[in-house]
Amino acid sequence: MSFDQLTTKRLASSLLIALCLACKPSPAPAAKPVVAGPQVKATVITLRTTVQPENKTFERRIVISGDRARDTGELDTWRLYDLEAKTITFVDDVAKTIRTESLATVVARHEAGREKSLPSHYPNVKYSATQERRTLQGVTAERSLIESGTYRRELWMGEHPAIPRGLFGMMQASEAPSSPLAPMTRAVDEALIKAPGFPLADRTTVPLGNVTLIVERTVTVIAEQPVAESVLSLPKGYRDLTPKPKPKPAANAK
Length: 254
Known about the structure:
The structure is a single chain. The chain has helices spanning 3-21, 103-114, 167-173, 186-194; strands spanning 39-52, 56-65, 68-71, 77-82, 87-92, 97-102, 126-136, 139-148, 151-158, 198-208, 211-228, 239-240. It is an alpha+beta fold. A twelve-stranded mixed β-sheet has the order 7-8-9-10-11-1-2-3-4-5-6-12. The chain is globular and about 65 Å long.
């Protein structure tokens, strides 16, 4: 195996691991959801992920109500998005802490992480928007490709009226770097953070050894339903690690 092939394989593995880590199974929904406490109307996006050749299927849900959104597939640590204030709150249920940052701060940190230098012989991951279109969930979705060697990811991005514009960009920007090879995905990150739409279909394929790993994620349902108000609320009693603004110097200070 050549150096370039080895590098591509490592990148593909890192990207697939990052994708699969987000595919934790969620409990199957009851026919009539029973929620304790106050309820709110919410838009619930159901995403189904299949992994081959393991033939595993997972479901997760993104809940949106008012200006707030959350991916309920995130368990011990999760993010609460405030679409109006353009902030992201990182919640750690293990350490019992919360930290709120502006989207601008999160994007700047994300950009700094991918600006680290890499040897010139490392390949870059290519991003290209195509002219192909298809109808998914009642809207027109456009096909984009992410490629590096044998690694291939196909995204069908669409702007659905029930999904806030820019939500996916906030989710992408606040993801932790998947590996030290993150700078290789610079062009991809730039495009996805700026994307106004949401991936209604997402398929990744990469040959690894004698098998081809395939990870497919599809939006299967977008529906309005009641959810517990607590799902989109910050836990009480957690230690707030949000950086405090520096005090302004007094007017008469010299």
